[in-house]
Amino acid sequence: MGRFEQIYEEHREAIRAYLQRRAPESLVEDVLSETFLVCWRNLDRVPDEPLPWLYAVARKTLANQRRKLAREQRAGVAEPPSAVVEPEPVGDTVLAAAFAALSERDREVLRLVAWEGLSLSRAAVVLGCSALTCRVRYHRAKTRLARRLEATETFRGDLKGAMR
Amino acid sequence: MNNDVIARLAAANPVPTDAPLPYPEPVVAPTRRIVLALALAAAVALPAAAFAGKLGDLLGLSNQGTTVATSSIDLSKDTGLDDAMQQLAFPSAMHLLGTRNGVSFYAARRADGDYCFAIESTVAKGVGCDLNGTFPSSARPIMVFPPLIQFAGFAADGVASVVGIDVSGNTVVSAPVSENLFASTTRGPFPSVVAIEALDKNGNVLATERRAGR
Question: Which of B66, B67, B91, B147 has its CA 20 to 30 A from that of B29?
């Protein structure tokens, strides 16, 4: 098995899950294909540990796809707005609202750690920043989320029963 | 608290993985104190099925308010809240229900029938929407929003005042309800408050909402 085939077999589902956590299903397969096309074209640049690099490619590809959709929407030939809505944290309405109130930068570093299970040094590769910067971003994002949750949960009352 | 947040977020993963996730590396806490944002977001509970026609009918609130463009509301200029409003698909127009003691109250209905609220003042701002909620109802005639940063919120018809009480039952803070809205003249936080009571015009307790963990 060649290197590309090995990377594809080992990491395809991880990249698919990464995309499913961030994009509607209508975008997932296209972006997944594009991500591995980039991998194939740049195989000599793929590091020994491919997954964070692949996440970074998927992240950029998804961002490009969203920009393209936004342009099409402005031109009136677009997908409906729901096509670009990100999946949110599920099963926890309060968390979802607090999470949605964070900036995209905060959300992404938290997702990488909590959902992809990346270490901060690996998350830094995905985000294209230094490990130290990533640590600071992560800590700040986590604190902001905790503060928002703390404020929203001071009184839960019936809200608890309303959680999905 | 912070690590609990990550565990909670992990539990809400929309596409969970079968394999256990590796534990993140230890975090070096920044020495600089985080400046807390006053902008808050809260999920609030409202019965979408109850909404049919006028805003007042839908909410069980008599106050109809006046229509304003969502983009004209100051809190929509807050980046985090604007993101949240877009994520939550806030409608382009909202109803300004009124202003009490410097707090402005807004309500609106999304295209899918879910309801959204917004509140803003110099102390706190917040946005939130629906989901399977019980407000307003006899069990939950009040909604403090955002919770206790400022003692302000929405109240169903029939609620004359709202009070926050301490563990001994003493009133810590109170506010009269006017046109379904209330806001205290004093500002929070009110850490000794363990519960909030909704009172009718005769001072009878209509409902009590206990503070989580108290």
Answer: B147
